[in-house]
């Protein structure tokens, strides 16, 4: 059974089975074994134009081509607002389970509180609690799904949303220019840009080596701005999961990563960051992800196909369709994995197995044979 909150489970000595991942998915690198491969870029002076803007653009573009991830500092979002946001978020997650569950969205509600994620057919759960709200376009806001405790939550989150929308548009301007397009090109491609904020809370975990806070994925949208505390746990890979690095937390910075939409619009020139979050047994961790997405009916197709290149997409599709294909692929993989596991367990219990190579079967159980496509192809 899926737990309704992680409060009680975090106190146990062992991890509940529903969170235990197959060996091939488990963390390979420690949550606090930090790497400085992801560049930290100061964007002070980005609006001044001229040489300074050019230099900043070059750094951002290089990071987008190599990783699809970079960190920004001197971004102009007020430090007080950021600290209020994190303090209030921590207060929300510290509320008793019944308070958090007043905003339970497990029935498919749009926004609120939930454990793990709301994907259907997931074989294994993520070790996280989230509270999420849809902040743009503003006319779609449903405040009945925004927590009313702590008291300042709504006012602070509204301001935070607005500041992050502005910052995201600034970054999209830089990326548009880098593609040789007018500054507004990427924001225009989003039509009426959507923004969704997901506050992730990863409680201390009794057996962090067996699970993930958030399983490996790419974000579907254009660009994501992640605020993380100093604990560490965000990991990225650029070789399809062979090697991972843990992103060094930088106080006051935003981790910026490109999603699938950004990847397609650039015809694959900019990477869609392949990432996950790991947990630990020493401290809980908080991160706030702000997803900037195109409108559901916005067209997804490369804005610029450079000479000699082929389009990475066969045909233009809507963002809603792109998302639907991504989700059904993810669910299909999760279901196959679940079925393969159940089948093997069943086989192991039948007597005929006495004559079969049991060892091999047990090995298969750890790594079910699924055709795993490289992440770039998942949506193709
Ligand atoms: C996400 C995400 C990473 C983190 O919410 O999509 O990738 O470190 N979060 O919480
Ligand atoms: Ni993500």
From TrEMBL:
UniProt domain Fe2OG dioxygenase: residue ranges:
190-294
Give UniProt keywords alphabetically.
Flavonoid biosynthesis, Iron, Metal-binding, Oxidoreductase, Vitamin C
BP GO terms, sorted: flavonoid biosynthetic process
Task: State if Metal-binding is listed as a keyword.
Answer: yes
Check the record and name the PROSITE patterns matching this protein: FE2OG_OXY
Give start-end positions of Basic and acidic residues composition bias: 349-380
Q: Where is this region: Disordered?
A: 347-380
Task performed by this protein: Catalyzes the 3-beta-hydroxylation of 2S-flavanones to 2R,3R-dihydroflavonols which are intermediates in the biosynthesis of flavonols, anthocyanidins, catechins and proanthocyanidins in plants.
Recorded metabolic or biological pathway in which this protein acts? Secondary metabolite biosynthesis; flavonoid biosynthesis
UniProt catalytic activity: a (2S)-flavan-4-one + 2-oxoglutarate + O2 = a (2R,3R)-dihydroflavonol + succinate + CO2
Which terms does the record give in the GO molecular function aspect?
Answer: flavanone 3-dioxygenase activity; L-ascorbic acid binding; metal ion binding
> Its family?
Belongs to the iron/ascorbate-dependent oxidoreductase family.
**Swiss-Prot/TrEMBL cofactor(s):** L-ascorbate
Going by the entry's taxonomy, the superkingdom of the source organism is recorded as Eukaryota
Write down what this protein is called. Naringenin,2-oxoglutarate 3-dioxygenase
One short Pfam family name for this protein?
2OG-FeII_Oxy
Keyword Ribonucleoprotein appears in the UniProt entry: no
Q: Which PANTHER family match?
A: OXOGLUTARATE/IRON-DEPENDENT DIOXYGENASE (PTHR47991)
From which source organism is this entry?
Salix dunnii
